[in-house]
Amino acid sequence: MLKPLSDILEKGLKIIFVGYNPSLRSSETGHHFANPSNRFWNILYRAGLTPRKYSPEEDAGLLQLGYGITNIVSGPTRAAAEITTQEYQKGAVELRRKLAYYKPHVVCYVGKGVYEKYSGRRNVPWGKQKEPVVPGITDFVVPSSSGLVRMKLDDVVAIYSGLKELLRGRP
C-alpha cells in the first residue's frame, strides 16, 4: 500500500523545499527524495547548503540546518505526470495554508512545474521570484532533482547555489 510521507516542518525555517510528490521509493522507505536516481542530496551538498552529503534516511536531520521538506501533492506516484489537475488544485490550497502557518524565510520549489501549478504563473525564471505567493516569504525556483532532468548537474548546482547567496545575512 502506497502511503504519503510525513512533512519535515517547523515554524520559522530558513528554507522549505517543496517537491511534486513522493516517489514510489520514498513511499516504501518513508523518506523524502529516496529514489536512487534522484540527485537532491548530492545537489544540496555540492551547492554548499549541507556540510556533507546526507542520505534520504537522514531527511529529518535537515531541521538542524534550518531546512524542511514537503510536497505540493501528498500521494505517491511513479511519475509527476500521473498527478491530476484536481490533486494539484487541492495540494496548492493545502501548501498555501502550510506556508502561512510555518512562515519560512524562503520556499524553494524543486521544479518549475511545482511552482507553476502552485502559483498559477507561467514561464517563470530560475531563482528568486519577483512576487511571493504568500506575502513575506521569498519564492525560489530550482530545477527538479529527478534523474530525468536533462540539464547538466553543474548547471543545476549553480542554480541551487543561489539559495546560499540569498540566505547570507539572515539569522
UniProtKB/TrEMBL annotation:
Enzyme Commission designation: 3.2.2.28
One GO molecular-function entry: uracil DNA N-glycosylase activity
Cited CDD domains: UDG-F2_TDG_MUG
Gene3D superfamilies to which the protein is assigned, alphabetical: Uracil-DNA glycosylase-like domain
InterPro entries the UniProt entry points to: MUG/TDG (IPR015637), Uracil-DNA_glycosylase-like (IPR005122), Uracil-DNA_glycosylase-like_sf (IPR036895)
Class of the enzyme per the UniProt entry, highest EC level: hydrolase
Uracil-DNA glycosylase-like domain span: 11-153
Domain of life: Bacteria
Keyword entries, A-Z: DNA damage, DNA repair, Glycosidase, Hydrolase
One Pfam family in the UniProt entry: UDG
Listed GO biological process terms: base-excision repair, AP site formation
Transmembrane region(s): none
PANTHER family registered for this protein in UniProt: G/T AND G/U MISMATCH-SPECIFIC DNA GLYCOSYLASE, G_T MISMATCH-SPECIFIC THYMINE DNA GLYCOSYLASE
Protein's UniProt name: G/U mismatch-specific DNA glycosylase
Gene from which the chain derives: mug
